[in-house]
Amino acid sequence: MKPIVNEKLVIVAALSLFGAACAKKQLAVAPPAPPAPVASTPAPRAAAPAPAARPTAPQQAATAAPRNNYPDAATRARIDELIGRIQDAYFDYDTHTLRSDAISTLAADSKELAQILQQYPNYKLKIEGYCDERGSAEYNVALGDARAKSAKDYLVNAGVPSNSLDTVSYGKENPVCTEHDEACWQKNRRVHIVAEKQNG
To answer: Other C-beta atoms within 10 Å of 172: how many?
Structure first.
């Protein structure tokens, strides 16, 4: 009887080993698990283009529309009114030093004029220098130029941009008075401000 039990044990043991071996083989050759099901989602929309980077200040200046450097008609009329109220500044004989009355004349409305011209750097005014009839033409041209430059210096110190002011001397040409006395000569020793003919 013992040998039979032993045979049965051997058979059971052999079957156990065989079953274990088969189980390992099945695990080894089992196909990979299918991927987890993904919930269906609508196709994604095309991504909106990223907003363009904002240009830096120099780029903005380069790409911005060019600024109009000339005042409009209403502003030009205001400039004309201001320089019309800045009456001619007068000088003593043979000098280009501004007198107190000439300073008062140039000071009138010059601050507003300066504020306007700072906005329009290409708009030009011309300061004309004049002399009376005495002295040579060459001397009076030089004196008229010095008078115009004295007036320009004053206006620049008042805030008017220097590049907005041109000077010219007419010497004893184009007098406003043609009598041959001091009262008339005084009227001719002056500076006069006008708007230049503009190219804009």
So the answer is: 21
Radius of gyration of the chain (CA): 49
Helix (H) or strand (E) segment spanning residue 85? helix 73-85
Does residue 95 sit within a domain?
yes
Distance CA(175)–CA(140), nearest Å, equals 12
Q: What CATH number did the domain enclosing 130 receive?
A: 3.30.1330.60
Q: pTM above the 0.70 mark?
A: no
113-122 tens-digit pLDDT: 899 999 998 8
Q: How many CB atoms lie within 10 A of CB 114?
A: 17
Summary mean pLDDT of the chain: 78
Q: What angle do CA 82, 176, 76 make, to 5 degrees?
A: 20
52 pLDDT band, cuts 50/70/90, is low
